Amino acid sequence: MATPSYPGVYVAETAGGVRPLDVASTSTAAFVGLAERGPDEATLVTSWTQFQRNYGSFIGEGYLAHSVFQYFNNGGRQCYVVRVARTDAALASVTVVNRADTPTAGVTFTARSKGAWGNSLLLQIQDGTLEPGREFRLRIRRQRDPGTVPEALDTLPLLEDFDNLSVDPASPRFAATVLADGSALLDAALHQADVALDRGRQTAGGPPSLPLNYKLNFQISLDDDGFQTVQLPAAAGAAAATADQVAAAIQTAVRALTKKHQSTPDAAFSGFTCAVEATRLVLRSGTTSATSSVRIQPAAQNDATMLLKLGSAGGGQSQDGIGVRRPAVADAIQVGDAVTGGVVNAATAGSDGTSAITDALFTDAFVRLDTVTDASLLAVPGVSGAALTSQGMSYCANRPLQDMFFIGETFSHDDAREEAENFRKSLTVANSYGALYFPWVKAIDPTGASNTPVLLPPSGYVAGLYARIDASRGVWKAPAGTEASLNGTVGLAVELSDVEHGTLNPIGVNVIRRFPNAGVVAFGARTVSADPAWRYVPVRRTAIMLRTSIYQGIQWAVFEPNDEPLWSQLRLSIGAFMMTLFRRQAFQGATPSEAFFVKCDGETTTQADIDAGIVNVLVGFAPLKPAEFVVVRISQQAGLAAG
User: Fold this and answer.
1) Could you tell me the pLDDT band of residue 361, with boundaries at 50, 70 and 90?
2) Are residues 267 and 399 in the same domain?
3) Shared domain check, 304 and 411
């Protein structure tokens, strides 16, 4: 507000005291599993199309792709993906020779991730569009059959196209940097330390058309010094003048020019040469450097470029000093599976590996999610086992904010009540940060390889179901019941009776059932915990949501003066947040005082706490618990006499 200095009204904004809290996301899943390709680190995926672009499609030995597809199909909006690979999986790579007269090094193109998928990549290397003598173009396609090199490249989809790539590390279009930032398929490494830079040159598009007569002018730029007009003597245009005499005249005229920039080496002009090689004029700068170059363009009057076959109009081709380090031009190079020879210096085949697939491959990958703070569900689809399920729930419970919930599943071959019961009893960790689902579901084979339905793990379906229920009803609504249909299913590995279901539900096995009017649905909402307070999935997930929301929403309080004004602001902010949830029917109770409380005052924060820099906030809530058993009592009433 301005300093009052005249009679009038002064208006200023002040803080209202209530800092709103946002409801934390509860439906972003994290999937860990085998994939055809893809980065090792946890990566956010927002659609099935993006997953295919980054990780490939369905594979035979893993269910990651199937589960991510069904996650989006059942209501998921975004998820994190962590790809794991066998310990002996290998990267596909190919080294292409450069354009030096004696190529002793080149450019190595390496698949971005391990696996045999890299062997199907096909490279096309061409001159760059803007500066064909200095840069190159890389087109990446993928073969349908890696065992053959197709002739009709245009029939293969163009996956990525990078034009005007440079081999100069100082260039903003340096190939290694551009691919590292923009390619999902390849990395590039240049091995050029022992390849000497060349003299920049321009080679005419054909033999000169003599005599030149009066057309004796053209413009030249050496080493990017700027264009200057070259005027050849009349003798160079005489009818008797030979190509060698014209070349000598060009050399003399260019050497007589004066450089335009102080930074341009004198040798660019003093060492300039022009000679006839294989009937064509070849013009060379006098320097050997990355910027050494010869550029030709038409003169304003009496232009000779068309007759000399120089410049772009005359078909002239430039190659700069650094141009020898570009990869050789090639129509089709197989990454990984190319035969050594010609433009290929070396090749290493990519491999999916043959080592055993163990639980450690997946559980060791959990740490890649340590820095992910906006995922609240975790699943390892298709990789069942008591040890892995136990470690998954343990990881969720031991995260610093305890902000993740594990969705587990039994083995694919478990098709009897006893097997599901034994699986549950074999868990070494049975906390409230995980739920167990049984059985696997049947679906139409998305690959089209099987004419009959295939078994798929339920975790991807269930994670999508959680997201759908959260969006429509809230995280406090149990993700189960007749509205909790699993889209994309055609059946179950086994259909249980009510009695069989009744033996699994009390021990925390959530059974997937099929009902005539509802289809295939999740018909259980229990954690595997034996603690009655945390028996239900929505109770635990509501607590996770509250913890995360409050944690993120009161960061502003750190380093604020620890006294009643701060405590009052905390009560107001958190209380307003809890009231909003109460109005959305997130808690049990008819009144706010019955549903929740927020306490932050001199009782929760003592002087000793203040001295230690601590403010204590106590938040309590009455969770909604599902009506798991609906009991209807029917009695017979005697008929009443008419009166």
Assistant:
1) very high
2) no
3) no
In terms of DSSP H, where are the helices of 343-497? 359-363, 386-398, 417-425, 459-472
Q: What is the pTM (predicted TM-score) of this model?
A: 0.84
45 and 169 belong to one structural domain: no
pLDDT of 101 strictly over 70: no
Q: How far apart are CA 417 and CA 398, in angstroms?
A: 31
Helix (H) or strand (E) holding 187: strand 186-190
Q: Are residues 489 and 604 both part of a single domain?
A: no
Q: Does residue 607 lie within any of the structural domains?
A: yes
3-state secondary structure of 79: strand
Pairwise pLDDT comparison (630 vs 150), residue with the higher score: 630
Q: Which residue has the tokens 């019941």?
A: 481
d(CA 571, CA 531): 30
Cis amide bond preceding 211, omega within 30? yes
Helix, coil or strand: residue 99 = coil
Residue 246 counted as domain residue: yes
pLDDT at 4: 86
On whether both 220 and 79 belong to a single domain, the answer is no
| Alpha-carbon radius of gyration of the chain | 36
> Which H/E stretch holds residue 295?
strand 294-297
Q: Is residue 16 part of a domain?
A: no
Work out the average pLDDT over 30-58.
Answer: 94
**Res. 41: pLDDT tops 70:** yes
- Going by the DSSP 8-state scheme, the letter that residue 600 receives in this structure is -
Spatial distance between the Cα atoms of 537 and 217, rounded to a whole number of angstroms: 85
Are 121 and 64 found together in one domain? no
pLDDT at 289: 87
Q: Please check whether residue 185 is in contact with residue 121, taking contact to mean a CB–CB distance below 8 angstroms.
A: yes
Q: Amino acid identity, residue 642?
A: A
Among 506, 501, 492, residue whose Cα is nearest residue 523? 501
Q: Domain count of the chain?
A: 4
Q: Is 282 among the domain residues?
A: yes
Angle between helices 48-55 and 64-73 (to 10 degrees): 160
CATH code of the domain in which 104 resides: 2.60.40.4290
Cross-strand bridge partners of residue 303: 217
> Which range marks the domain in which residue 100 is found?
93-197+324-348
Q: Taken in order 529, 532, 537, 540, is the CA torsion positive or negative? A: negative
- Do 395 and 473 lie in one domain? The reply is yes
Strands 441-443 and 491-492: antiparallel
Q: How far apart are CA 335 and CA 178, in angstroms?
A: 19
Q: Which residue has the higher pLDDT, 4 or 500?
A: 500
Q: Three-class SS of residue 422?
A: helix
The kind and range of the H/E element at 267 are helix 267-270
* Burial label, 61 (beta-carbon count in 10 A; 0-12, 13-18, 19+): exposed
